[in-house]
Amino acid sequence: MNFYLDPSQGGHDTFYPGTAAYYRRKFDEQPVTVYNVRGRMSDFSLDIHGFQYLTHKTAVTNLENESITTVMYDEVADILKKATGATKVHTFSHLNRRDSRDAAERKVSTDPLLESDTSAIDLLTPARFVHIDQSRAGAVEVLRDEGSGGPLDADLVRDCMSGRTRWAIINVWRPLDRPSVTKDPLAVCDSRTVEDSDLVTVRATTPRRPETQYSDVTKGDGFDVLYMRHKSPQHQHHHHRQQQQQWYFLDAQSPDEVLLIKCFDSQPQSRHGGRSSSVRTPHTAFVDPRYSGSPEWDEKVRNSIEIRSLVFWENN
């Protein structure tokens, strides 16, 4: 997996989706054990682990943008209300990742038109780096952008900012490959095993000109995300035996199996009696060594969709 690399070692503190520079970023690449949840999907929940698996068959058969923003957005609102007890869900963006990460990296390294880091490359590929989509400040930016002349009621935004209303950002992710995904599956880290000191703020600056598929991710010009430092098992054993970073994925996840990922929760994190109200969940696409390396694997492309929503528990 690809973890945060300090800028002094070649890493970065700002990145630009939709540009050649996005595919030239350097990371701290580390081997990680990822545990399969197949057969125990119900053991994990948003409020304890920060992620949850559910079974849901979408009514959308044609992934035209209109079908996504009408039918699929309504489905996501229903999924999140049932899973969380929220009173309101506002979906603000989605990404249909359907391009090859490997092909994009080859193109950036060989195409003379992409020599400049600022060159636009309008591809949506799996995100092979450990991240959380928004930091606390980044989540607030999204909330304010959606309420500043946007679709969210100004009173609701004020209630969120004052602490009267609990709110969160939750992603709903599913593969679209049938029968199941084998390339670039999505892994999630148990939020209870992530220390605040593991996380580093990095700025995502979204493109406006020329228009790209990333332009609608936020109504602003960008937001703060979180990367995660890798901690070796020896380091974790010595310092935080109870806080080893634990990774999970659903092997051969099908389009009818959705993953809910909590990126932010305004409710303070608490750990009482071993239970936790999780605030943030690192996640990443990763290369499964069981399938990688063959020419057939190199040519495969993962097709998936992630839908991002603001979730509200009004007067809570």
TrEMBL record:
NCBIfam families for the chain: CmcJ_NvfI_EfuI
Organism expressing this protein natively: Knufia peltigerae
Protein name, entry field: GA4 desaturase family protein
Molecular function, one GO term: oxidoreductase activity
Region (Disordered): 267-293
Positions with biased composition (Polar residues): 267-281
Protein family according to the UniProt entry: Belongs to the asaB hydroxylase/desaturase family.
